[in-house]
Amino acid sequence: MTEHRLQWARRHWQRLTGSPRRDDDERQYNYSSLLACRGASSRAPKLAAKHRVVIPHLRPFKDEYEKFCGTYVNNRIRTTKYTLLNFVPRNLFEQFHRAANLYFLFLAVLNWVPLVEAFQKEITMLPLVVVLTIIAIKDGLEDYRKYKIDKQINNLVTKVYSRKEKKYADQCWKDVAVGDFIRLSCNEVIPADMVLLFSTDPDGICHIETSGLDGESNLKQRQVVRGYSEQDSEVDPEKFSSRIECESPNNDLNRFRGYLEHSNKERVGLSKENLLLRGCTIRNTEAVVGIVVYAGHETKAMLNNSGPRYKRSKLERRANTDVLWCVLLLLVMCLTGALGHGIWLSRYENIMFFNIPEPDGHVISPALAGFYMFWTMIILLQVLIPISLYVSIEIVKLGQIYFIQSDVDFYNEKTDSTIQCRSLNITEDLGQIQYLFSDKTGTLTENKMVFRRCSVAGFDYCHEENAKRLESYQEAVAEDEDSADTPNGSLSNMTKPRTSSCRTVHNGPLGSKSLNHLAGSCLALGGGEGASEAPHSRQAAFSSPIETDVVPDTRLLDRFHQITPQLFTPVDETVPDPPLDTLYIIDFFIALAICNTVVVSAPNQPRQKIGLSSLSGMPIKSLEEIKNLFQRLSVRRSSSPSLASGKEPSSGIPSAFVSRLSLFSRMKLTSPVEEEVSQTSESPQGSSNSACPAETEKQTSDADLTDGKVESSPAQPLASNLCYEAESPDEAALVYAARAYQCTLQSRTPEHVVVDFAALGPLTFQLLHILPFDSVRKRMSVVVRHPLSNQVVVYTKGADSAIMELLSSPDGTSLEKQQMIIREKTQKHLDDYAKRGLRTLCIAKKVMSDAEYTEWLRNHFLAETSIDHREELLLKSAMRLENKLTLLGATGIEDRLQEGVPESIEALQKAGIKIWMLTGDKQETAINIAHACKLLEPDDKLFILNTQSKDACEMLMSTILKELQQKSPDSPERASLREGLQESPATQDSGLRAGLIINGKTLEFALQESLQRQFLELTACCQAVVCCRATPLQKSEVVKLVRSHLQVMTLAIGDGANDVSMIQVADIGIGISGQEGMQAVMASDFAISQFKHLTKLLLVHGQWCYTRLSNMILYFFYKNVAYVNLLFWYQFFCGFSGTSMTDYWVLILFNLLFTSAPPVIYGVLEKDVSAETLMQLPELYKSGQKSEAYLPLTFWITLMDAFYQSLVCFFVPYYAYQGSDIDIFAFGNPLNTAALFIIILHLVIESNSLTWVHMLVIVGSILSYFFFALAFGAMCVTCNPPSNPYWIMQEHMLDPVFYLVCVLTTCVALLPRFVYRVLQGSLFPSPVLRAKHFDRLTPEERTKALKKWGEAGKTGQVTPTYADHSDAASEKRATSGPDAVFAMMSAPSHPVEQDDLSVHETALDSDCCEAKDSGMAGPPKG
Question: Which of 62, 659, 980, 1122 could lock 974 by a disulfide, CB 3.0 to 4.6 Å apart?
Answer without folding.
Answer: 980
